[in-house]
Specification:
Elements (H helix, E strand, L loop, with lengths): L2 H14 L4 H9 L4 H16 L2 E11 L25 H13 L4 E6 L7 H13 L3 E5 L5 H9 L4 E3 L7 H7 L5 H13 L3 E8 L6 H13 L4 E6 L16 H14 L9 H6 L3 H6 L5 E2 L6 H6 L13 H14 L3 E2 L11
Parallel strand pairs: 1-2, 1-7, 1-8, 2-3, 3-4, 4-5, 5-6
Helix pairs in contact: 1-3, 2-9, 2-10, 3-10, 4-5, 5-6, 9-10
This protein binds 5'-deoxyadenosine (5AD), iron/sulfur cluster and FE2/S2 (inorganic) cluster.
Iron/sulfur cluster (SF4) binds next to loops.
Amino acid sequence: MEEQARKGLIEKAERTHRLSPEELAALLADAEAEEELAAAADRVRHAFVGDEVHLRGLIEFSSYCRQNCLYCGLRRDNGKAQRYRLSPEEIVALAAKAKAYGYFTAVMQSGEDPWFTAERLAAIVREVKKLGLAVTLSVGERTKEEYRVLREAGADRFLLRIETTDKDIYEALDPGMSHENRFRCLADLKDLGYEVGTGCLIGLPGQTVETLARDILFFQEIDADMVGVGPLVPNEDTPLGGEQPGDMHLTRRVVAATRLLLPEANIPATTAMETLKPNAREWILRSGANVVMPNVTEGEARQKYALYPGKACVADTPEHCRVCMEGRIRALGRTVGQGAGGRRRVL
Ligand code: 5AD
Ligand code: SF4
Ligand code: FES
């Protein structure tokens, strides 16, 4: 793209928070736009969500999954996956530790594990809510009734990435899952009053800047409260093991463009990004992101929850990561969020 055109588009996005699919795709395709895009996203981040970086304590409570996503180490056909399931008491104890570390949100994540029925999960959510934490669930596709039971138990937020808005790519990579049901889940979650997080993977086979542009416009269309974007990290125990890792620069441009179009959203600097590039979390926090999700899972479970290999911080303790992250945030001239850090409407 010509320099004038590029500057014009970035200015327009920063001022109006709107771009056409073609304009977005052109920016995503343009490696030379990256620094300006990131700088604009950093300004929008500062103006709309401020300098606080919200930390969410991530509890990975079960590595069982009934799904078979081609990229993911927890897929049911991966015989090498090490399966574990924390007990409800262990999960609540980890949430209590998250609280003690000074986190204000517990994110409870697992594969799609049918052992955790809505009722069992609801009982855990009620206990965690008693600690005074905001609760985010990331447990995959459920019926609206199940989502309702969990919401009524006190769950505040829910993460469910669309992964890609391209139906053909989605259904090829997530066999047995339908794109319609994924959209249905997101609509039900919104309808039930959850803060809804979604997002996509960068580097899926067949993906183009056009599909990524549509992903970002989809996040905007559903008014996503949170958007997690991370690169594919190939896992050799999965069918996508031979793929190239997702491009970290393209990932950064997608994060920055997402901030420009969804100025109020909570956007994490993902662990997948840190896995590909040391200190990537800082890099992404300076390119539009305002959230980090340090892992509070302990012991063997921490190693066993292996979506992809080489996951950043697997060998570190939760205490260490807490102190480490705070130092890294301060070094950026930012502060650790002192509150639940939910979506705040400004516009
Ligand atoms: N690399 C990067 N991210 C992955 N996820 C699953 N497998 C991988 C992988 N190999 C992401 C998916 C899912 C989230 C919990 O983890 O986007 O939604
Ligand atoms: Fe299961 Fe989620 Fe992994 Fe798919 S991405 S196999 S649903 S844990
Ligand atoms: Fe885990 Fe720094 S955040 S070691």
